[in-house]
């Protein structure tokens, strides 16, 4: 069974199958570090699963707002016209926590916090925590990952 592991310390995402590594990619997690509280801007730790795989029919660099494609394709010109946007591109893997009281329900719910694995502009650095809580990936890397996983795939996020 496929499993995603995200190391906050290493800023790495690994896809495994029965303990065998199938792929490893550099990511960018939260600038604010690890944490589960609503409004913290932190990346939540613990056991999760993919609740939904969004955007499979969209082109690379498709722009999403509220988990819906806007019809825009990311470009430097588009970025210049929207300098404060937190760019969610290409695909979304929406995460749901598995641990009530830690990352599910109440004031620490990963799904209600809209924690995703998603694409980001290629100009954004990987291997450096800079996100608002989500796990950012290069668009080409995310396409590879997205093609291998499905809703229900376990995701473990750890320090």
UniProtKB/TrEMBL annotation:
Entry-linked InterPro entries: LD-transpeptidase, LD_TPept_cat_dom, Transpep_catalytic_dom
UniProt GO cellular component terms: extracellular region
Membrane-spanning residues: none
Catalytic site positions: 118, 134
Residue intervals of the L,D-TPase catalytic domain: 2-158
This protein's record includes keyword Calcium: no
Record keyword Cytoplasm present: no
Keywords: Cell shape, Cell wall biogenesis/degradation, Glycosyltransferase, Hydrolase, Peptidoglycan synthesis, Transferase
Pathway note: Cell wall biogenesis; peptidoglycan biosynthesis
Record-level Gene Ontology MF annotations: glycosyltransferase activity; peptidoglycan L,D-transpeptidase activity
GO biological process: cell wall organization; peptidoglycan-protein cross-linking; regulation of cell shape
Entry's family note: Belongs to the YkuD family.
Protein name: L,D-transpeptidase catalytic domain
Annotated organism of origin: Marinobacterium lutimaris
């Amino acid at each position: 069974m496929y499993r995603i592991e995200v190391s906050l310390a290493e800023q790495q995402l690994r896809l495994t199958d029965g303990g065998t590594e199938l792929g490893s990619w550099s990511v960018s997690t939260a600038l604010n570090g690890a944490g589960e509280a609503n409004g913290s801007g932190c990346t939540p730790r613990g056991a999760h699963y993919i609740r939904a795989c969004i955007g499979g029919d969209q082109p690379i660099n498709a722009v999403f707002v509220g988990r819906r494609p806007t019809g825009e394709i990311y470009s430097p010109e588009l970025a210049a016209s929207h300098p404060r946007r937190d760019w969610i591109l290409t695909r979304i893997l929406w995460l749901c926590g598995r641990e009530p009281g830690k990352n599910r329900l109440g004031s620490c719910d990963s799904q209600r916090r809209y924690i995703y694995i998603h694409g980001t502009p290629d100009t954004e650095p990987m291997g450096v925590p800079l996100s608002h809580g989500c796990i950012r990936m290069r668009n080409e890397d995310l396409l590879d990952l997205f093609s291998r996983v499905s809703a229900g795939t376990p995701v473990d996020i750890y320090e």
